[in-house]
Design brief:
This protein is α/β, with parallel strands linked by helices. It has a single domain, classed as P-loop containing nucleotide triphosphate hydrolases (Rossmann fold). 33% of the residues lie in helices and 27% in strands. The protein contains seven helices and nine strands. The strands form two sheets. It has a six-stranded mixed beta sheet with strand order 5-6-7-3-8-9, sandwiched between helices. A three-stranded antiparallel beta sheet has the order 2-1-4, covered by helices on one side. Strand 1 and strand 2 form a beta hairpin. Helix 2 runs parallel beside helix 4 and helix 3 packs across helix 4. The longest helix is centred in the last third of the chain and has 18 residues. The structure holds adenosine-5'-triphosphate and magnesium ion. Keywords: ATP-binding, Nucleotide-binding, Transport.
Length: 245
């Protein structure tokens, strides 16, 4: 297994008291699988993802990476995250070339080489090289998400986390994005943790899924079997709500 979460809980404490955002979650991800994390808004998906990347620490439980001692505070270029809102992670004044090349330059790749790689990476996410000279506001939402994926790929991740990256896209663009992720997964031999509140999008895409509700995983399994024979009443309600047939 690439990654294992063992009884991971995250509590936030503020003036209003305690709030448990993630509750006793145990999950594992294989080396080149697409794993979908499904749940409605506020169910704890992003908090879970942030713990996997190391942006947040679990209050209880532990996260184990293959070949890494538990709790080792390593920087993890091998896990990359792409967010719902690409503007959150892009400097609006930079050209796409510099946005994609930035992680490479930070890791001491020469500028000329990093720019060349930026062009290659755009091609991998099926964007024209002409985009290199544009700024983010001259790109569409779907293009910006591809740019964010290209930048993440520059670190040759073993795990790519996509946190609601298609939520702002139209259905056609969303389908293209899922197909692209499948291609990239095979090509780069990486795992994908795909986070969405839209259960209806993941048939034929994700290998396995986990359904979250109020911070806890209520169901997990192979996508086809969860969709055809959901065990939890909550999953059944989600399926009914999106009239999945
Ligand atoms: N830093 C924080 N302090 C306090 N509460 C937090 C913090 N971060 C998240 N929460 C709470 O934890 C819960 C889960 O939030 P999270 O962002 O993980 O949900 P989500 O499933 O990603 O939702 P969405 O689909 O809307 O992105 C929410 O109720 C949120 O308000
Ligand atoms: Mg979220």
């Amino acid at each position: 297994m690439l990654l294992e979460l063992r009884q991971v809980t995250k509590r936030f404490v503020d003036r209003g008291g305690d709030f448990t955002a993630v509750r006793d979650v145990t999950l594992s991800l294989g080396e080149d699988e697409i794993f979908a994390l499904i749940g409605e808004s506020g169910s704890g998906k992003s908090t879970l993802a942030e713990m996997v990347v190391g942006l947040q620490q679990p209050t209880e439980g532990s996260i184990h990476w293959q070949g890494e001692a538990p709790g080792q505070a390593a920087s993890r270029p091998h896990v990359q995250i792409v967010f719902q809102n690409p503007d959150r992670s892009m400097n609006p004044y930079w050209k796409v070339r510099d946005i994609v090349a930035e992680p490479l330059i930070l890791r001491k790749t020469g500028r000329a080489e990093a720019w060349k790689r930026a062009g290659d990476l755009l091609e991998q996410v099926r964007l024209p090289r002409e985009l290199l000279d544009r700024r983010p506001d001259e790109c569409s939402g779907g293009q910006k998400q591809r740019i964010a994926i290209a930048r993440a790929l520059s670190m040759t991740p073993k795990l790519l986390i996509a946190d609601e990256i298609t939520s702002a896209l139209d259905p056609g663009t969303e389908r293209e994005m899922l197909a692209l992720l499948q291609t990239l997964k095979r090509k780069h031999r990486m795992a994908v943790l795909y986070i969405t509140h839209r259960l209806e999008t993941i048939a034929g895409f994700a290998d396995r899924i986990a359904v979250m509700k109020d911070g806890a995983v209520v169901e997990t399994g192979h996508t086809a079997s969860v969709l055809s024979q959901p065990q939890s009443s909550y999953t059944r309600a989600l399926l009914a709500a999106c009239s999945y047939a």
